[in-house]
Amino acid sequence: MAKNVIVGQSGGPTAVINSSLAGVYKTAKDLGADKVYGMRHGIQGFLEKNIVDMDEKIKTDLDLELLKRTPSAFLGSCRFKLPEASDNKELYDKIFNILREYDICAFFYIGGNDSMDTIKKLSDYAKEINSNIRFMGVPKTIDNDLAVTDHTPGFGSAAKYIASATKELIRDGLVYDFKQVTIIEIMGRNAGWLTGAAALAKCEDCEGVDLLYLPELPFDMDDFMDRIGKLIEDKGNVVVAVSEGIKTKDDKYVFELGEHTEFVDSFGHKQLSGTARFLADAVAAKYGVKTRPVELSTLQRCAGHLTSRVDITEAYQVGGSAVKAAFEGETGKMIILKRVSSDPYICTTDIYDVHEIANVEKKVPLEWIINDGTYVSEQLVNYIRPLIQAELTPVMIMGQPRHIVVDLV
Fold first, then answer.
1. Rounded Cα gap, residues 2 and 7, in angstroms
2. Mind listing the domains of the chain with CATH numbers?
3. pTM over 0.90
């Protein structure tokens, strides 16, 4: 039986995705894998045989520890939509020929919804051709929108960064004695989990944001402007958090109401940017106050200096659990996280059929969105808070975090 495995990373990176990669690598070697190969730039690079021997990159325990603490995707990523096998059998035959060439017994893909779709399609084709190669999904996404799993690795660290940055922006807004409105734009196409994390800024030393808008409910521009006007009159200094993906009731993205540049990826996803700018300009024009649009942008997913220890630990665990499951004969599955308790926080791993997860979006429950769609409930805050606990600081060299990198071609 083949004893080599291969692992890849896909989709948007996170601050802890490489911890999952470390979990796959270490567990595979501990269980007797001869070689652990890495796909550079995911399945797209794999098709070009852009493959690296991980042993050449991870030579010491320090390398492995640095990998866990290095943000973004060590192996590089891609946004490549694998077609249906019935539409391109030659492509699938090419994939399986390469797998046989490298004597692969197990294939691991670290990613979100689109990556789980890849695992689903490959495991289905393996069954069709009677291949014994196993395919396992390792969950990753800051958006926290994968079905079945309680939450996804990457979300906790992004939520920690958002809550911390929001708190600092609120503090900064109180410096001057004049009226101003700060609008913070947070990632989240169709699910508002990340925007909801801004509510964690509210605590004994911070009054929190005034309004929160998630994409689960239509955005009413007139109501928004009325609320902003009352807040300016009542308190002067206003801070609002909005999801980049909020839409009007006629299903139009708010950022599309202003001038914008259109970009659509291979999965048909529009690039979302400019919501905060549009709203800030509208507020300034109507009320004549200073406004500040703040796009946290990619900082939300690459802030390795502020990772959650809970998050980075769980990321490592799901990588290791995927390898154990594959070596025990599982295929076409994804590792999920199961919350046993929130206080004290206890979470375990399990496996689940990837067919029930791929292409299914998990959104914030509507009952967790309150105040006529302008805030979130304590249930959401209590759900997120355990995931941002503790820190794993980077290895610092000359005042800066040290990362481990690989040349990507």
1. 15
2. 4-141+306-360+390-401 (3.40.50.450), 155-302 (3.40.50.460)
3. yes
